[in-house]
Amino acid sequence: MDVRIGIQNSPRELSFETSQSAADVEQAVAAALAGQSTLLKLSDDKGTVYVVPAAALAYVEIGSEESRRVGFVA
Which Pfam family name is an example for this entry (predicted)? Predict the structure, then answer.
């Protein structure tokens, strides 16, 4: 699933693919925004861990869990 994170006062966004479910990512974002955690920690498929301060989050876009199809679809 694709995840894109916008950070305040930064012209670039974090974009990566993760094997975490959409519900897990949404729960981590909600906990960070509710003040239960001061950091948002997510990891990608390659094992890289992304840590973003909750106060700096501008937006989080969670993609669908469907796998992409390659080729022509009938």
Answer: DUF3107
